[in-house]
Amino acid sequence: MRQHLATIIIPTHGRGLVDITSRVQENVAASGIALGIATLFVRHTSASLLIQENADPAVRSDLERFFARLVPDGDPLFRHQDEGPDDMPAHVRAALTTVNLAVPVKGGVLALGTWQGIYLWEHRTQGHRREVMLHVLGEP
After folding, report:
1. 132 touches 18 (CB < 8 A)
2. What are the pLDDT digits (tens) for 100-117?
3. pTM over 0.85, yes/no
4. Alpha-carbon separation of residue 47 from 68, 100, 104 (angstroms)
5. Is-contact 99 41, C-beta < 8 A?
6. For 55-69, what is each residue's pLDDT tens digit?
7. What is d(CA 115, CA 60) in angstroms, rounded to the nearest whole number?
8. In the chain, which stretches have pLDDT less than 50?
9. CA dist., res. 77 & res. 34, Å (int)
10. What are the CA-CA distances from residue 34 to residues 5, 26, 76, 115 (Å)?
11. If DSSP codes are grouped into helix, strand and coil, which group holds residue 60?
12. Strand 100-106 and strand 16-19: pairing?
């Protein structure tokens, strides 16, 4: 059994989904692990990880519009606004999604479905430098 740990830095340009599939796959390949599991963890409270369709960009914009309706910026319900009107909504969006994912590795590649991609979802309106920890565990 082998393990590999890497930190993937993802610059964002503000709210939206960033496809990180190829960056994750590069690190999985570098691990030398052919059969196992890749676990990802985003080290932030206002961003999340998502496996979602990678073919039609309308899916990503539809998700963004849905969350804008569900958790609007500046909602008077929220008292926590230390970093602006998008601060608490970003935390709620992260809480409603997830900060960690597990993807099987088979043949040295991520065993994603045909239309699946791995995304970092930036929930803040301003760009940030996000860190995603990748742990790959398995056999060569």
Report:
1. no
2. 999 999 999 999 999 999
3. yes
4. 15, 11, 23
5. yes
6. 999 999 999 999 999
7. 13
8. none
9. 48
10. 15, 13, 50, 22
11. helix
12. unpaired
